[in-house]
Design a protein that fits this description.
Elements (H helix, E strand, L loop, with lengths): L1 E6 L6 E2 L13 E12 L2 E5 L2 H8 L3 H12 L8 E6 L25 H5 L2 H10 L6 E6 L28 H17 L6 E2 L19 H17 L5 E8 L3 H8 L3 H6 L2 E5 L9 H10 L5 E5 L35 H5 L11 H14 L2 E8 L1 E3 L15 E4 L4 E4 L1 H12 L5 E8 L2 H4 L2 E7 L5 E7 L5 E7 L2 E7 L3 E6 L5
Parallel strand pairs: 3-18, 4-5, 4-11, 5-6, 6-7, 7-8, 8-9, 9-10, 10-11, 12-13
Antiparallel strand pairs: 1-2, 1-20, 3-15, 13-14, 15-16, 16-17, 17-20, 18-19
Length: 492
């Protein structure tokens, strides 16, 4: 048995001593019920965006290869789930669509922009890493503008992204099918599509398209028929926005039999709060839709240059090459800047947010977890609308420098030990109340039989803990501000 820890004190996937279990009671005990199996894991990973491609292209070939190996090699993070965008998004260097001409036949459809801007090359390079093995989820931020009621990709002046016209449900479905076929011709299989990223919209700030549950219910039926007619075995994940709204939206989309059979899963994001996992919501969604696994498709340290912050070229970058910043409660999000009620959006520690969400999502029926941009530059870009966010890996092309932030260490630790096909089991924390609010845990068994327990402790003092998960039995001291992974087999 082994334990590895990533902590505020500087450890990254470091070995942590495990003691034999002694008889008698323990103040803190983690027990995994082998008879209460929950979800099957699809994967853990990050998003291969065009912005990530642009950031990587500023580096030497050796540095690019090093980063891709860190993410996709079986001996490193071994990302097994990837998200990407269909045509442009905010994390592109420009706006574009694959069908700019208002022609329902889609005669001019082309993905050449993705070839020219490096997006295709990034996906292929990730796939070419020896031993890499991942599934791709693809999300359109918008339909081509001529398919929408406002005729635009987005419109900040009216605070609208526009809505897909019902007359173009079939056209847009063929557009998505053409995308799947074009990527397949490049050797890239799309495992799943979402009908649109963030159907509630983003006030027209960048590429977007509003879509009500009723509209999406109608669209997914057409999507499924169109994909089937072209013999494209692609999953459809509905929703694709924040967890707080997922119950009503999923209920609306899946409310009739044809739509329910057309959809394979439910996609969610984390941006409703800087500290809540919404475990109660996720549990209810899993109970209401047991045949539609939930996948977290986006989350990041967002809005790093928010209202009133210096956006100049010489603006201070407190996160650049300072690991300590990621463990302090100094990051703020969009809600901190724009909402009057900041109770859900206080300043937070980025590492806590990642570790809490990864462990918490696995504990509450989530089958897959995808980070946003895998790599960005040290300013949190490039981004054609100035919507700067952070990534687990940050780079400076001018000096060929790479900063593997603690966020990447957390993702590597969880991903390496949480493999596709793993079964998650109900995990119970027996813990005093004053410690319980700072501790989360989840247990699973991988396809190779490896028993795993992830523990996240955000308190400021160490805690002694006993873990019981089948063959995995041991006692250990969990450091403050840390994520610990126990395994019944070696990571090495």
């Amino acid at each position: 048995m082994q334990a590895h820890v990533t902590a505020a004190s500087g450890e990254r996937l470091a070995r942590l001593p495990v003691r034999p279990v002694t008889e008698g009671p323990a103040d803190i005990r983690v027990s995994v019920d082998p008879h209460a199996r929950r979800q099957t894991v699809v994967g853990i990973g990050g998003s291969l965006t065009q912005a990530s491609a642009a950031a990587l292209r500023t580096l030497s070939d050796a540095r690019q290869a090093e980063i891709l190996e860190a993410m996709f090699s079986p001996s490193r993070a071994a990302y097994s789930l990837v998200r990407t965008h269909v045509a442009s998004c905010d994390f592109s260097t420009s706006s574009y669509t694959y069908a700019p001409d208002p022609d329902p036949s889609l005669a001019g459809f082309s993905i050449e922009n993705d070839r020219d801007n490096g997006h295709l090359a990034l996906l292929k390079a990730a796939q070419a890493v020896p031993g890499s093995d991942f599934r791709i989820v693809a999300s359109p931020w918008t339909a081509p503008p001529w398919m929408k009621d406002n005729g635009k990709l987005f419109d900040p002046s009216t605070r609208r992204g526009g809505a897909l016209l019902e007359t173009h449900h079939e056209t847009f479905s063929r557009y998505l099918a053409r995308y799947v076929e074009a990527y397949r011709a490049e050797g890239l299989d799309i495992w799943a599509l979402t009908p649109v990223n963030e159907p509630h919209g983003n006030q027209g700030t960048w590429e977007s398209m509003e879509m009500s549950p009723e509209q999406q219910r109608a669209l997914v039926k057409v999507m499924r028929r169109t994909l089937a007619a072209r013999d494209l075995d692609v999953q459809i994940l509905c929703y694709d926005q924040n967890r707080k709204g997922v119950e009503d939206y999923a209920r609306g989309v899946l409310s009739d039999e044809e739509a329910r059979s057309a959809v394979d899963g439910i996609a969610v994001h984390w941006y409703d709060s800087t500290f809540k996992v919404y475990g109660d919501v996720l549990d209810r969604v899993a109970a209401a839709h047991p045949d539609h696994p939930v996948i977290q498709t986006e989350g990041c340290i967002d809005n790093v240059f928010g209202l009133g912050k210096d956006r100049s070229e010489n603006a201070p970058l407190p996160w650049w090459q300072d690991d300590g910043w990621f463990w302090r409660k100094e990051a703020t999000d969009w809600g901190w800047d724009w909402l009057d009620d900041k109770s859900e959006h206080p300043p937070y520690a980025p590492t806590f947010r990642y570790a809490r969400d990864l462990v918490g999502c696995l504990a509450h029926h989530v089958a897959g977890w995808i980070d946003w941009n895998v790599v960005l530059d040290q300013r949190g870009g490039p981004n054609h609308v100035g919507n700067f966010c952070l990534a687990p890996i940050l780079v400076d092309g001018a000096t060929d420098t790479v900063h593997y932030t603690p966020l990447f260490a957390i993702l590597e630790q969880v991903s390496r030990s949480t493999r596709p096909g793993a079964h998650v089991f109900e995990t119970t924390l027996h813990v005093p109340p004053e410690v319980g609010r700072n501790l989360r845990a989840t247990g699973l068994v991988n396809p190779d039989g490896t028993h795993v327990v992830h523990l996240f402790h955000e308190g400021d003092t160490p805690v002694d803990c006993r873990v019981e998960h089948g063959v995995l039995r041991g006692a250990l001291t969990v450091p403050p501000a840390s994520i610990v992974t126990l395994r019944s087999q070696s990571l090495e």
